[in-house]
Design a protein that fits this description.
57% of the residues lie in helices and 6% in strands. It has 166 residues and is mainly alpha-helical. The chain has one domain. The chain is elongated and about 85 Å long.
């Protein structure tokens, strides 16, 4: 007898996806980035107002490196305060959540904090490279037009962005 009714139950412990992940559209990723920027702009304006950043603009002079660095650190801390919990728990920023997309590990494994750190260090760090930072940032996001729809920061961190199935 093959089926022994008294044998212990068996189960497959390898988790299988019951659905296929659909890569997020370029437009949904752009929409999420715009929403995230709109959340950040009021904070940036307030900080610049209270720290005298607009005075540099009015005078037409470049702010000191220390001021630029401090603003960068404040921006990163604000980003973490607003998006940190959602990123770690769901792989989403506020904009991604509103648009219905999320970050996942490209290989199907669990999304790890180190992947998120690598992703955002490259994403934010490219713009800080003297002289060519803006150019590198543009190259990074132009990779969205590859067949895999993955920017350089996605490739570097081994992540991809997919639609959230409801």
């Amino acid at each position: 007898m093959e089926n022994n009714i008294y044998s212990a139950p068996e189960s497959d412990l390898n988790e299988k996806k019951e659905y296929e992940e659909i890569i997020a559209s370029r437009w949904s990723r752009l929409g999420a980035a715009i929403l995230d920027a709109l959340i950040t702009i009021p904070f940036s304006i307030a900080v610049m107002y209270f720290t005298g950043g607009f005075e540099y603009i009015q005078q037409g002079v470049e702010p000191p490196s220390a001021y630029t660095f401090a603003m960068g650190v404040a921006g990163v801390l604000f980003f973490i305060a607003i998006h940190g919990y959602l990123l770690v728990s769901h792989g989403q920023t506020v904009g991604k959540k509103l648009v219905g997309i999320k970050i996942v590990a490209a290989g199907g494994e669990a999304l790890e904090k180190v992947m998120l750190i690598k992703r955002y260090v490259l994403y934010m760090g490219l713009g800080l490279v003297p002289v060519v930072g803006s150019f590198l940032s543009i190259i990074n996001v132009l990779f969205i037009f590859s067949s895999s729809k993955r920017c350089l920061h996605d490739r570097f961190a081994n992540t991809r962005v997919v639609r959230v199935e409801s």
